[in-house]
Amino acid sequence: MKIVSIANQKGGCGKTTTAINLSSAIARLGKKVLLIDLDPQAHATFGLGLSNAPTDKSIYNVLTDNNEKRRDIANCIISVSENLDMIPSNILLSTLEQELKDTEGAVSKLFGSIDAGKLNYEYTIIDCPPSLGFLTFNALRAAGIVIVPVDMGAFSLMGVGKLLGMIELIKVKINHSPQVRALATLYDRRLKYSETMLNEIKTFFKDQLFETIIRLNVTLRKSVAQGMSVLQFDIKSNGAHDHIALAQEVVRMEGAEEFKQALEEVAFKQEEVVLPASPRIPAIQPAAEPVDRCAIFSINAPKAKEVYVVGDFNHWKINEASRLAKLDDGSWQKKLALTPGKYRYKFVVDGEWILDSQNAEKEQNPFGSYDSVKKL
Ligand SMILES: Nc1ncnc2c1ncn2[C@@H]1O[C@H](COP(=O)(O)OP(=O)(O)OP(=O)(O)O)[C@@H](O)[C@H]1O
Ligand SMILES: [Mg+2]
Asked: Which pLDDT score is estimated for 285?
């Protein structure tokens, strides 16, 4: 099962809209989907018409330690439509952090419940609240993929820096590295500002940005008010088109073969839909026949237990491939074959992220600190 969390602490950037409609679109691809509403505001619950769900069947009841209120995850699942089920939320969820604050392993509670439930879903999609607190931390820790909706507002990227910082913290502290993908939302091509923001988002996220862009579409607002997904409300709308395209991209992240199969299924189901052209980000063309160059990363740290080099070239991932080898003289080294270009990077020495002291070239990053820069 793939767990996909939709997170961004910025309010109103399209998390719930993405969660509801991506879930519905993946379900339409024939895959079994569970949507978990992890926001005490319960917007996804309302948005899928479950506002009258029993209050004792919610994600709070799954996560609480209170024996009288706790329920098995399978007992809190409510069927929404073909292939789509949901665990609703309610305001009680806002008390959970206080309740679990002294409980060991509280940050892994959601992951543990999903894992122990042995649920039969191909995707679990989690809608996060607009904060970087306990609930979002649980969702990030559970996720294999984190989707970060980014709207076209002036402050959108500022918040994203903090969220990515939390994901980095989870990498370092828990050794869990979800794939991160940004999703451009609320794009209005009539506004020059949307274009400017989109370019900034593209520069910031590079190939971690979904090719699909979610356009501003009033049908998305109307459908949520009617308590249904945009696919049910108006399959011919731009909102439905964009979320189907997004679902295809998400499924494609799993591997080409499965994507092909899913596409065949959706082609069959979408016969009646005439899809209008949507704005797309032009694919980044690789340089013609690039020849890899050998980049040597080395650091003198005789007392260190483990050293990694993370950067643009390995999506800032700490894993075996980014581990440096210790040499006899106490220094650490890693040789990487990289295509010519400019790369930002840092060393991670026993969990601490540091600059390359042997390289004076550095650039400020969106978190306000600096990365070392190597040109090949
Ligand atoms: N692409 C879109 N076109 C038009 N309206 C949209 C679009 N995406 C979201 N909206 C509307 O913008 C508002 C905020 O969207 P949404 O609830 O999805 O954001 P959110 O990030 O979940 O907010 P919160 O942080 O409060 O949970 C809603 O009224 C929603 O219907
Ligand atoms: Mg929301």
From this structure: 41
pTM: 0.73
CA trace torsion 277, 220, 218, 9 (10° rounding): -100
Q: How far apart are CA 372 and CA 44, in angstroms?
A: 42
pLDDT mean across residues, the chain:
88
Q: pLDDT, tens digit, for every residue of 232-244? A: 999 999 999 999 9
Q: Whose CA is nearest to atom 8 of ligand 1?
A: 14
Pairing of strands 145-150, 362-364: unpaired
State the Cα torsion 116-121-122-124 to the nearest 10°. -70
Q: What is the pLDDT of residue 258?
A: 47
Nearest residue (CA) to ligand 1, atom 30: 221
Ligand 1 surroundings by CB, under 6 angstroms? 11-17, 39, 41, 43, 130, 185-186, 214, 216-218, 220-221, 224
C-alpha angle 126/173/298, rounded to 5°? 120
In 89-231, at which residue ranges do the beta strands (DSSP E only) sit?
123-127, 145-150, 179-187, 209-215
Tell me which residue of 28, 16, 15 sits closest to 245, measured CA to CA: 28
> Which amino acid, one-letter code, is at 138?
N
Q: Is the dihedral of CA 24, 233, 87, 168 positive or negative?
A: positive
CB atoms inside a 10 Å sphere around CB 283: 8
Map out the domains of the chain with their CATH numbers: 2-269 (3.40.50.300), 293-375 (2.60.40.10)
Query: How far does the centroid of ligand 1 lie from the alpha carbon of residue 19, in Å?
Result: 10
